[in-house]
Design goal:
229 residues, alpha/beta, five-stranded parallel beta sheet, 11 helices, globular
Length: 229
């Protein structure tokens, strides 16, 4: 089944499909992207594939088995998600220690164990160093997916132990298609949103709901500049 992911990130998807087909999928991957261009969907698809009991092909989970359905609901016991917390929006050391303990435990469903770390660039040095040993010597059948928009902020020791998969900004055509499906906008507003969003769907959604306010803000700024000159 073709999804928006196939159209939005064909290169990243093909990279993983080739690795799977050759039996050389790394145990640790970094999805590096400009943000909200399908990285979460790609992580979900890979997660489902790794857990699927009846895969239809490389990176093609059936979507119907119990594991696929549990993973789609975010309820699979062997999928562990870590996200930044608190005012500083950082991944806490306690959360990483908890993740390490969970990964060292026996798999509950008898298959792979998967850790998905969102905004991995917010890993603090202490957390990252504790995580490093597990990354170097993972328990059997364990996979790591690190998602980041700031690849350069990850510790070099972590980057060197992962394969980086780069995701590209969405095309203007993809953003236009999504906008048409979800919003009622004038053609010139669509073009404005596409130009400002620069391929980031999250930004496009935000602007689409505030086009009038955005235009008013830009006009106000322009008038202020003219008045000062």
């Amino acid at each position: 089944m073709t999804t928006t992911l196939d159209h939005d990130q064909p290169a990243a998807l093909a990279c993983l499909q080739r690795a799977v087909a050759r039996g050389r999928l790394p145990h640790a991957l970094i999805f590096a992207s400009p943000g909200d261009v399908g990285e979460a969907e790609l992580a979900q698809r890979l997660t489902q594939y790794l857990l699927c009991t009846q895969p239809q092909g490389p990176l093609a989970p059936c979507g119907a088995c119990d594991n696929c359905r549990q993973a789609a609901r975010g309820a699979h016991p062997d999928v562990h998600n870590v996200r930044p917390k608190g005012l500083l929006r950082a991944i806490k050391t306690d959360d990483m220690l908890g993740l390490i303990q969970q990964l060292q435990a026996t798999t509950l469903a008898g298959g792979a164990k998967i850790a998905v770390i969102y905004q991995a660039e917010t890993l603090r040095k202490e957390s990252a160093n504790r995580f490093l040993k597990t990354l170097e010597e993972p328990p059997p059948g364990t996979y790591f997916i690190l998602i980041t928009t700031r690849l350069e902020r990850l510790l070099p020791t972590i980057r060197s132990r992962c394969q980086v998969v780069r995701l590209q900004p969405l095309s203007m055509a993809a953003v236009r298609t999504r906008l048409a499906a979800q919003f009622t906008l004038k053609p010139d507003d669509v073009e404005l949103v596409c130009r400002v969003a620069r391929g980031r769907w999250c930004r496009a959604v935000q602007l689409a709901g505030q086009v009038r306010e955005y235009r008013a803000m830009v006009q106000g700024m322009a008038e202020t500049v003219r008045a000062r000159n």
